[in-house]
Each structure stands twice: as C-alpha cells, then as structure tokens.
Specification:
Keywords: Coiled coil. InterPro entries: DNA-bd_dom_put_sf (IPR009061). Residues 70-132 form a coiled coil. This protein is mainly α. It folds into two domains: 1-77, no CATH class; 78-134. The protein has helices at residues 10-28, 44-58, 63-74, 80-113, 115-132. Helix 1 (10-28) packs across helix 2 (44-58), helix 3 packs antiparallel against helix 4 and helix 4 (80-113) crosses helix 5.
Length: 134
Amino acid sequence: MLLLYTNIDITKIYKLFFLLKKRFIKIRGSLHDRNDSGVRDIDERIIRRINFAKTMRAAGMSIESLLKYIQLFDSQEDNLEQQKDLLKQQVEIMREKRDDIQYAIDHLEFKIEHFDDHMFKSEEKLKKLEKNNM
C-alpha cells in the first residue's frame, strides 16, 4: 500500500510513526522490528494509522489532538462521541483558516482590481509620509 504524499516535515512523521508503533506494541503485545531479510515489518494497521495521521496533520490537526484521537480509538471504552467531537473541532479550525485565507484573497484581489485608482494613490501618500519622517 502506498503512503499518501504530503508536504509534512519528515521528522514529525518519523516521531509520530514511533509513537503509533509504541502504542501498537502495547496493544498487540510484540511486533518484530525486522523480518528475516532485514526489512522493517509493518502490517496494514500501522500503514493505515500512518496514512490517517498524515491526512489529519495535512488538515492541520495538532499532534496532541491526533494522539488524543488515537487514545480514544484504542480505549476499551465507547468514545465514539468524543472522537466525533475532535473531528468536528478540526473541521471548525479548518473553516476558520479557510475564511481567513479567503478574506486575504479578497483583499488582494480588490487591491489588484483597483491598483491604478486606489493603490497607486495610497502608496504615493505613504511614500510622502515616509520621506517627511526621515
């Protein structure tokens, strides 16, 4: 199975992988680090968790929230509502970021559209102010 490619710092993925692996070992008992050929032996569960973690990190979820989600998932208790709440919180964070980015895009587009009649005049005034303060 191929891992999803994202632009995430590889050291963070490496640390997260070993946190996930450590938790996995606690649950399953033991996991052989390498097979007879010397290749790291990683099963489907670990790959799925890494892909989930990478996707959530790409979505902006903090390591702390991600680990909390994994702890809830691994717990013997029924934590579905708490898991769902964490995902809802992440969606809200992403919506806020999207809105901030959209505001900035709209602002830049306005400045581009009105560059000649607005920006040029504003920049000229700013240059005069800066020149007077020197």
